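User: Please run a holo structure prediction.
Assistant: Happy to. Please share the sequence and the ligand.
User: Here you go; the ligand is iron/sulfur cluster.
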Amino acid sequence: MTGKIVYARSKGFFERFERRPGAIKDNMHYCPGCGHGILHKLIAEVISDYNIQDKTIFISPVGCSVFAYYYFDCFGISVPHGRAPAVATGLVRANPDNIVISYQGDGDLGAIGFNNFIQAANRGENIAVFFVNNAIYGMTGGQMAPTTLPGQKTQTSPFGRSVTNEGYPLKVSEMVAALDSPVYVERTALSSVRNIMNARKAVRKALRNTIDKKGFSMVEFLSGCPINLKMNAREMNEFIDNQMSNYFPLGCLKDIADSRDPIKRPEGVYNSRQVIDVLYPVKVQKGVAPDFRNPSRIFEKERRIKIAGFGGQGVLSLGMMIATMSKLRNFNVSWLPSYGPEMRGGTANCSVVLSREPVGSPVVDKECNLLIALNQPSLDKFLPELKTNGVLIYDSSTIEPPNCGDRIVYAVKASDIAKRIGDLKYANSVILGTLSVVMEDYFLEGADKQDFDRTFEEAIMDCFSSKQSVIQLNIDAFYAGKQAVFKENQPDGAADNYGDCAVKNK
Amino acid sequence: MKNNKLYTVIIKPEECKGCERCVNACPKSVLKMGEQLNFMGVPYAYYIGDGCIGCAACFYTCPEPGAITIIEKSEEGS
Ligand SMILES: Cc1ncc(C[n+]2csc(CCOP(=O)(O)OP(=O)(O)O)c2C)c(N)n1
Ligand code: SF4
Ligand code: SF4
Ligand code: SF4
Ligand SMILES: [Mg+2]
């Protein structure tokens, strides 16, 4: 027989689905009669017809279409549940020439991912969203979706969806069409051939808009999940055409692409050197050669540090400065913040571990070597975790002298000194100064003694490199904290700021 | 003109999942479900061999990428 092939497997699909595990490599994993397959064919056809396979990125969602990347011969990415529009945003912002398809189910888009979706729509991201509304969570075995029809029985609405209990189905297309940014919104159905052909046109239109950079386009597809709805092909189409379309009317809800100019986003910064200059404007010679090792024996063991105080006291950045200092001297470090839901006013603490070996657990909850407490509750809470020969540094502006047994205790009026320098927020650098004295007094040997002041300064510069104006003040605070200790240790004592730093139990 | 069939349709048994969408959609009722099972264990659709008008209804309604191929025949035998 001679003849010309007029309709056949699209070039938009791989020739064989080699990524699909198991013996079946020619057809897809969907159940018989599933709407996903019908739509996949429409999409494959258009990416091949428009010749855009080499710049199309198809995002596979979570849901039955999670493996869509087995099939499309273009770029693909799998994303967590509901996150396709967020990932799509990154893809298209990073390279505006990417043609990004966000393919999503009604659970994915309408439930867990609705905010991701509606915000991307409202930003007018230049992407095409293909929204498969099958009124059910297909993949997980037929639970109620936001789009499940009133009265529809599902695993989780066994008596039928009750609008008095679960509310009415979510009309996604109507909601997104009400926004100003989206350019094209149409609801179609994967039921009769006539409806499928309309859906085909809508897919083409949406991708044409994306190619022309017109912005956000969405096509909703009323689709069949014959397995979970326990219907044959005929019943499935009837359900879509009568019941679903009744609640979700078909048609174009918005098409203003012609009146919109192609999107032009502000030019980004793509040069990594430039990005570093923008983010970290201060350039200092920091750190040491890669093979440098501080000789002091103290560092033979892992050092576990807890810093705790009031949110907003600079607890986390104090931890960051200590971690940075250690990093700049080639230690392995971890920095783990922990704070309440409130940014300011609650308690905050962070765990810092520094070690010559890789750090095992970043959590410091017992066997703590150094505790820095910036308020009374933190001291009371964490003191029991400090080892008996550990070191406590506390802010004696606000904290009562504790009963510490054999521990080494340093008190510094960090808040008072910081206020004198200009702002309470410098208290953390004052503490850093105290820490440097503790280290000199007890732990550092030989060249480390001189080296560590420079390290502290470098750490301050590094941590505040995006706020150049405060670097000098923090360095001043550091030396003030150091000074306070030094004066106390003068044999004559009785310096002006007596009590700013009292070394006890030494 | 002996042969006035300008189109023919091929259904690959091993790619058909037997959903019957094509059978329901064909305006000429020239597709039927068979009795035999393919290697996946499902009955598959087949073309009765005559009467296809190449409308592609079956092609677009079929969820499988390559189960259906439609061929426009050259006018042999006329
Ligand atoms: C974060 C997360 N939450 C929940 C799940 C479980 N889960 C998998 S698929 C799915 C629903 C899928 O429904 P839908 O998006 O409508 O896709 P369909 O299978 O119907 O095409 C859920 C809740 C998950 N995988 N990940
Ligand atoms: S469960 Fe439903 S949506 Fe999922 S593949 Fe099967 S028919 Fe399709
Ligand atoms: S192309 Fe049209 S006429 Fe031919 S088998 Fe398919 S549906 Fe029937
Ligand atoms: S529509 Fe496709 S999968 Fe379904 S019976 Fe017909 S050929 Fe088979
Ligand atoms: Mg669904």
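Chain B has one domain: 5-75.
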